[in-house]
Structure formats: C-alpha cells, structure tokens
Amino acid sequence: MIPYTKPFLPPREEYEAYLPGIWDRNWLTNMGPLAIDLENKLADFLRVPQVLYVANGTIGLQLAINALGLSGEIITTPFSFVATTSSIVWQHCKPVFADIDPGTLNVSVDNIEKLITEKTSAILVTHIFGNPCDVYAIGRLADRYGLRVIYDGAHCFGVKIGEASVYTFGDISICSLHATKAYHSVEGGLIISRDQELINKLAFMRNFGFNGPEKFAELGINAKNSEFHAAMGLVNLKHIDELMSKRSAVVKYYDFKLQQVNLQRQAWFPGASRNNEYYPVIFENEASLKTCVQEMNAKDIFPRRYFYPSLTRSLPYVTPVSMPVSDNISPRLLCLPLYPEMTPKEVDEVCSCIQ
Ligand SMILES: *Cc1c(COP(=O)(O)O)cnc(C)c1O
Q: Potential cystine with 10: which of 88, 145, 235, 252 (Cβ 3.0-4.6 Å)?
C-alpha cells in the first residue's frame, strides 16, 4: 500500500529519553520547560524573533483574528483547507472570497483589491502547498487600505523568501504542527508575529487570559500545548534536516520520472525556497484525473484530491459563490503520495499509473 502520507515517527528511545524528566518534574503542561525550549529552538530554526507554541494551527488562526480585533469582512481564499474559512466564521466575521491565480494557486492580489469595501478589516490568505503569496503586493495593498494581514502558513514550515522566513510577513502568521505536516509535534501550532505587544497579548490569550495566579490581562481560551507534545516536537526537530533532504530527493525523482508527462505545475514565488510538503499536479481535465485515481486505487495507491471541492462549494455555512479559477483548478488537482521514507520503487509505481 502506498498511502498519501505517513506521519514521521522518530526512534522510540529518543522520545522516551524525555519521559524521566517529565516524571521527575511532574510538570505536564502549562508552558513547562520542554514547551519553552521548543519555542526557543523553533524561533532559532525559523529565524524569527519569537513563536508561541499552541494546541493546533486552527486555534492559532482563531486567536490571531481575535487578537487583532477583527470584525466585518475578511478577504480570503477559496482554495485551502477548511480551517482557513471556518476560523473566520467562528470569530463571527464574514469570509469574502477572492479567486486564485491559475499559476501560483494563491489568491490573486488584483482580485483582493476589487473586493475591498468599508466593511473589510483584514486579508487572511494561505501560502498554498508552501508557495508564498505575493507578500510584497499584499503588504502594499494592506498599507494603502489600512487592513490587517494574517497568513495561514500551515504548509510552509521552513520556507524562506530570499533570507527571510515566510513567517516574517503580515501582522500574524500561523503554522500547523499536525502529524501529517512536514514537521510535527503530533498536534500543535505556532503563532508568529514581529509585533511584541501582539505576542504578549496572544501569550495571555492562549492561557485563559491569566496574568499571574489571581489576575487576568485579557479574554482568553485554553490553547496551550503539553510537555508530551513539546517532547515530540523537540525530537522531530533533531531530524528536520534529514526529513527535508529526504523529501527533496523524492520530489526530484518524481520530477525526473514525470518530465515527459503533460501535467501542469504550480508556479513558485520568485526567490522562495521549497519545503516539498506536497506534490500537486494538475490534469488536463477531471475525467483524466478520475481515471488515474481509479488506476492508482486498484494498485493500493492513495493520492489525495486537495483541496476539492473549493471552500465556496462545500461548506454548509458559506453561501456558494462562483470562483471561475478555483472551480476550474480544484477538480483537476491531485496531490501525489509523498513522505520522507518513500522509496524510488514506490515513486515508480505511482508514476506508471500516471503515464
Ligand atoms: C493543516 C491545516 C490547518 C489546520 O491545522 P491544525 O493544526 O490541524 O489545526 C490550517 N490551514 C491549512 C491550510 C492546513 O493545511
């Protein structure tokens, strides 16, 4: 069987080495020493001033919207994971969808501008499959109209634009450390911002708003993560270079095997690195994608239609709207199986179905 993805598990002894310390300290959660250590190491690794380690990426998005005090309309993408849209609705804001660019698969900045009204408070868009949005153009637009910018950076752990982490753009970025992502802590998320005041506020918010044992600084929620999750994050971080280089080798081999096949690829943001978290290919039409998926399934290969259908078509709490580009791309896009331990033989099997 070739699954869509295989969560990475480190050698068990490496995880177990953290357990005696947890038992000795009897400190299981609430920003213990392992969580703090993980935050420091991740800030170093990502080259950002500070990160907040939270329970998951979705609550990171919800906290970001809340901390910025957003209301009214938030311009967002129809082509992403459900959490991008649901977080907006959860925070009682209205998602307004801007269609994507057919090359980059990220929201087109021209489309954002057309949708700005006096009710717009922010732009919340995804760096889809790790490909950075046009952060410079979005930054200029936001400045011109006085809008806040949140990036759903769930897919782009480690991605840089030139020397700068993709997470240094916008007011707030979030990352997901879910088990299926390129780097994970089983469950987990990161909130990143260069604005120290905002970070301080968010740090209170993730812990019920507590400021000391008997004082509250903010309205908060429980978005903390545990020492057990932090331990997994710390162990996996030791393997990050090896994981990234294995992913890159799998992707290079896919590229080589598929160079003769007529499949459209995502246009990558100039100067940005890749973390090879996904291997999306776009078929000429949905029928050929379906034939290919059938053939793969018959051989116990399980690719994934990501993200299908578009968020403007599938959510009971979103009024369907027509998104010509997203509606056209989404039914034709397939993410091929990809995980660090994937063997050349497995890639061969996937590619033979496509050919
Ligand atoms: C995985 C993902 C999320 C959610 O992250 P969780 O940590 O699972 O809550 C949000 N946005 C996108 C684009 C994702 O792929």
A: 235
